[in-house]
Amino acid sequence: MAKKMHDTPMLDQLESGPWPSFVTGLKRLAQENDMMVDLLGQLETSYETKKGYWKGGTVGVFGYGGGVIPRFTELKDANEKPVFPDAAEFHTLRIQPPAGMHYSTDLLRKMCDVWQKHGSGLIAFHGQSGDIMFQGVSTANVQPAFDEFNEMGFDLGGAGPALRTSMSCVGAARCEMSCYDESRALQTVINNNIDDMHRPALPYKFKFKFAGCPNDCVNSIQRSDMAVIGTWRDNIRTDEKLAREWFAANGMEGLVNNVVTRCPSKALAVKKAGEARTTDGFSAVALDDATALEIDNHNCVRCMHCLNVMPGALLPGKDKGVTILVGGKSVLKIGATMGTVVIPFMKLESDEDFDKLNELSRNMLDFFAENALDHERTGEMIDRIGLSNFLEGMGLEVDANMILQPRANPYIRMDGWDEEVEKATERKASGG
Ligand code: SF4
Ligand code: SF4
Q1: Are 170 and 146 in contact (CB under 8 A)?
Q2: How confident is the model over 174-193, as pLDDT tens digits?
Q3: What is the distance in A from the centroid of ligand 2 to the CA of 296?
Q4: Are 325 and 340 in contact, with CB atoms under 8 Å apart?
């Protein structure tokens, strides 16, 4: 039984609406935890005065330079004593989740037990950073709590100017769209660069994210410095039985209005049975005895729309791999940027493929560490030094498939125009 609750009339109002309220959750935890009682007291004060009362500081665990977000209260009385002493220290432990965020209920219960024993009991699965956020612990309890999580096989995540905790989609474990082993890719890259996570020494944060297909359920293209996104380079796979069932349920109207006309690159067409092309990159699937869906695979930009709306009838091809993009971030000094393709396609199946990914990610981190300015993300660095210099520095071959926007903006001309200009200049110089 915890100490008596403070009056919280403003917070109480937040429970009166139609939606579940976080206040109810905090009050439930406060029934057995003094820290939560005082947290509610400080929060109510913040609502009254419209001021925040948390300041940072330095708190850590032995051997690590980051991973704990320190919070000390600034709400003091005339004698410099905290007004809400049990919540005077309310630090957060960032713990890396398992790749793909797979947990057993047993493990979740154990995590809750540890946090009730050492902390406030408040856990966020998962924060924007991708970590499990164990919120609310005193300075003295940070080390014992971490030791118990460590015993369970978990490690601290990243914070500050460091390699940050990574995310992979649930992928191959449960999703038929998956094009590679996302969990293995995440573990390979993060485990081999873990020093950069625990000892912040980079110019700014650096994030890797792994999405199994272009649906990009982890927002890697917008939210990571290096995004690894699954794709395929052969034909879209088809399942005639499921395609016929889908067509029987949705009809020609559904097919035309929701599938064919929504393909961004006009790669889909409705054909009479027997008239659909199946060579030169085209493939087809019968929808009934009179109708077929023709797919122009060379012009498919892998937007995933048709695969998503015809589940199982259309699936990623068999020749799978990944596309790698760099420089995404939702808001940079230069504005919001999406990642830019630097490796249009690479296989990611064999041990050698994973070694190659690992080497690339290490090179990427090293290049960032050596060339980025303080507080500059990868996208900003590339914008400043120029993409061609970045590619040259990284030793990456220029490829015409490297594009900023599909079908709109190839930033590299491959037609030899620069040699023509050189020849013309030489001719002019020699008076020819
Ligand atoms: Fe599935 Fe693709 Fe989403 Fe991963 S990104 S969970 S593979 S749909
Ligand atoms: Fe068109 Fe390809 Fe997108 Fe399907 S996945 S709608 S074929 S671009």
Answers
A1: no
A2: 999 999 999 999 999 999 99
A3: 9
A4: yes
